[in-house]
């Protein structure tokens, strides 16, 4: 492999990693500000201007906290749980197309860490591994509340992954590819998939709330029933990894929603900008467009958290198995009929 290509990919990977960390870190600050605005409060305003240094203060606090370890026979698993949760949250961003390409130093830099043909399957595979971090941590904590939270999280994620997968199948039938980059390229201008697959988008969005354990589907860690859920026995940075992984997952979910249904880095007039202002200017604006879209969905996650009350667990399962999964199957059938309408009409003699 070309050494320049290795350096190029290394820079892109580090940039994606740093960007993911910064977005997850400042999502904690944004969460408090959004909650404060909705509740007519000020929010963080002591550490830095407007509280902008509050995430750094929180990280320092977590590092300085005492390391507490329960009386557990599974000490290795107790440490492994948060490590798995954090790792899976970060490596999902490797296949996300953050833009098209830039011309730098005589080279064409692809704004994606890696482009694989089955990137959607990669995302689903990594997300499904993340539940092991929660399950292992809850079981190794030697605490019944932690175990109950872990079991809730596992059953919730498994249940909603089915509906999420069905919503994606209808989208794949229309796009004909499993590559996130190709799906983004097909949505140039305003040919966004949300206009062609609104039901898929709605199902995927609801399932994203459940997959990230966000309100109103935060049954795995609801304070009123389970104290802190699967991370009740965790302290210091081990607990910080679990909390940080939730915000990283929220950021990744918002980005994938933007790429799958809202054009990703595409925006109206992008071809005109590239033609008149150059490739770099057009694609930098594309990166900005993707950033605006994902920030909107991050705000939407937070807005819902502080607006809608928590579901009961039986309501959560009823919604997943008896409403979303049938809707996903119906959407697949409708999509198939629309795609094959000419063949169907010919078969019926019309």
From TrEMBL:
* Transferase recorded as keyword: no
Naming one, the record's GO cellular component terms include: plasma membrane
Q: Which compartments does it reside in?
A: Cell membrane; Membrane
Name of the top EC class for this enzyme: translocase
User: Which reaction(s) does its UniProt entry say it catalyses?
Assistant: a quinone + NADH + 5 H(+)(in) = a quinol + NAD(+) + 4 H(+)(out)
GO terms, molecular function: NADH dehydrogenase activity; oxidoreductase activity, acting on NAD(P)H, quinone or similar compound as acceptor; quinone binding
Keyword terms of this UniProt record: Cell membrane, Membrane, NAD, Quinone, Translocase, Transmembrane, Transmembrane helix, Ubiquinone
InterPro entries attached to this UniProt entry: NADH_UbQ_OxRdtase_su1/FPO (IPR001694), NADH_UbQ_OxRdtase_su1_CS (IPR018086)
Keyword Secreted among UniProt keywords? no
Q: Which PROSITE patterns match?
A: COMPLEX1_ND1_1, COMPLEX1_ND1_2
Q: Where are the transmembrane segments?
A: 6-26, 76-99, 119-141, 162-180, 192-210, 241-264, 284-304, 324-348
The record's EC number reads 7.1.1.-
Pfam families the UniProt entry points to: NADHdh
- Choose any GO biological process term that the UniProt entry carries and state it: aerobic respiration
Give the highest taxon in the source lineage: Bacteria
Q: How does it sit in the membrane?
A: Multi-pass membrane protein
Which NCBIfam families does the entry mention? PRK06076.1-2
Q: Which family does it belong to?
A: Belongs to the complex I subunit 1 family.
| Function summary | NDH-1 shuttles electrons from NADH, via FMN and iron-sulfur (Fe-S) centers, to quinones in the respiratory chain. The immediate electron acceptor for the enzyme in this species is believed to be ubiquinone. Couples the redox reaction to proton translocation (for every two electrons transferred, four hydrogen ions are translocated across the cytoplasmic membrane), and thus conserves the redox energy in a proton gradient. This subunit may bind ubiquinone.
How does the record describe its quaternary structure? NDH-1 is composed of 14 different subunits. Subunits NuoA, H, J, K, L, M, N constitute the membrane sector of the complex.
Q: What is this protein called?
A: NADH-quinone oxidoreductase subunit H
């Amino acid at each position: 492999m070309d050494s320049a290509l290795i350096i190029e990919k290394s820079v892109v990977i580090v940039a994606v990693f740093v960007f993911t960390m910064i977005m997850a870190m400042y999502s904690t600050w944004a969460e408090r500000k959004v909650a404060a605005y909705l509740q007519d409060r000020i929010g963080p305003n002591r550490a830095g201007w407007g509280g902008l240094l509050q995430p750094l203060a929180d990280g320092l606090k977590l590092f300085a906290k005492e390391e507490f370890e329960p009386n557990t026979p599974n000490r290795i698993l107790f440490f492994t749980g948060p490590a798995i949760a954090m790792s899976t949250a970060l490596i999902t961003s490797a296949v996300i197309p953050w833009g098209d390409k830039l011309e730098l130093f005589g080279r064409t830099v692809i704004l994606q860490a890696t482009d694989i043909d089955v990137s959607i399957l990669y995302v689903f595979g990594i997300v499904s591994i993340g539940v092991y971090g929660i399950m292992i941590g809850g079981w190794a904590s030697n605490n019944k509340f932690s175990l109950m939270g872990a079991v809730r999280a596992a059953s919730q994620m498994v249940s909603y992954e089915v509906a999420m997968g069905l919503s994606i199948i209808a989208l794949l039938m229309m796009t004909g590819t499993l590559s996130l980059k190709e799906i983004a390229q097909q949505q140039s201008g305003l040919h966004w998939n949300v206009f062609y697959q609104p039901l898929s988008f709605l199902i995927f969005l609801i399932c994203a709330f459940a997959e990230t354990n966000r309100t109103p589907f935060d049954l795995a860690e609801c304070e009123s029933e389970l104290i802190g859920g699967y991370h009740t026995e965790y302290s210091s940075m081990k607990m910080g990894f679990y909390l940080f992984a939730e915000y990283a997952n929220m950021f990744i979910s918002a980005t994938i929603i933007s790429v799958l249904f809202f054009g990703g880095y595409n925006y109206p007039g992008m071809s005109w900008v590239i033609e008149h202002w150059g490739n770099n200017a057009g694609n930098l604006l594309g990166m900005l467009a993707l950033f605006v879209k994902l920030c909107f969905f991050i705000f939407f996650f937070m807005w819902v958290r502080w607006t809608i009350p928590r579901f009961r667990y039986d309501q959560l399962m009823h919604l997943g198995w008896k409403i979303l999964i049938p809707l996903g199957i119906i959407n697949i059938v409708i999509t198939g009929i629309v795609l094959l309408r000419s063949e169907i009409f010919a078969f019926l003699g019309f």
